[in-house]
Amino acid sequence: MSYALQGQGGARGGGGQGAPQSTPEQRAARRDSIAAVRAATVQEVMAQIAGRENQPASDVFRNVQAWKTIPAGEFLKNMDEVVGRGLGRGCNDCHVANDWASDTLPRKQTARTMMGIVSDINTTLLPRLGPGPGGRPRAIQCITCHRGGMASRNAIIP
Ligand code: HEC
Ligand code: HEC
């Protein structure tokens, strides 16, 4: 049945171009080092906005269109823990150096669209199911689909 779907898998594991596939251990090590750089970068930017962490992100940063009302400090933490970790990517996969506000990279624009999709699903569509386990609101996040991996279609940890 899903002949076309099967054809989309492509090379897994980031090897590409005939390179040998990396092992789960190698991918885990790579993820850890990317995570360490992300955390350090968040600390740097956090220091730059010191004292304004609780103001809305759109007041503190220059080009926030999706996550406007999130407090700036939480916005930055989300860049690391929700976006970066969810996709297994580093800050500079979406941002050009020294210009966080720039929308030059297409991936950043896709990510912004995705933020809107996630918001629509969480606020409009999922509530149709009623409350989740323990009465908590149901919610998906980037990691729900992206599974912490860089291959957009079918990544799965590790
Ligand atoms: C998958 C892509 C992606 C990754 C990875 C990512 N960002 Fe972002 N970032 C975005 C998007 C999209 C926006 C705009 C959000 C909006 O419009 O609400 C943004 C906005 C920002 C802004 C606000 C810039 C401004 O002045 O408007 C900062 C600061 C920022 N990111 C820092 C980071 C840091 C630090 C990391 C790594 C920990 C990171 N980002 C990782 C996509 C990404
Ligand atoms: C409901 C599932 C789903 C959720 C949730 C989701 N995505 Fe995606 N995302 C996809 C699909 C499907 C694609 C397209 C894959 C393809 O290229 O065919 C995609 C593609 C992308 C891409 C471009 C491919 C890449 O890796 O560069 C980015 C960036 C991205 N998503 C960011 C995000 C971010 C950030 C979030 C959380 C705010 C998010 N996505 C949440 C399903 C999802």
Would you give an account of this structure?
With 158 residues, the protein is mostly helical. It has a single domain, classed as Photosynthetic Reaction Center, subunit C, domain 2, CATH 1.10.468.10. The protein is 47% helix and 0% strand. It is built from 6 helices and no strands. The chain has helices at 3-7, 24-48, 57-60, 72-87, 106-125, 142-146. It is globular. It starts with a helix and ends in a 12-residue tail after the last helix. Residues 1-16 have low confidence and may be disordered. The chain binds heme C (2 copies). One heme C binds at residues 83, 86-87, 107, 110-111, 114-115, 118, 140, 142, 144-146, 152-153.
Task: Please summarize what this structure is.
This protein has 158 residues and is mainly α. The chain has helices spanning 3-7, 24-48, 57-60, 72-87, 106-125, 142-146.
Which fold name corresponds to the CATH topology?
Photosynthetic Reaction Center, subunit C, domain 2
Bound molecules: heme C
Number of distinct beta strands: 0
What's the story with the biggest beta sheet? none
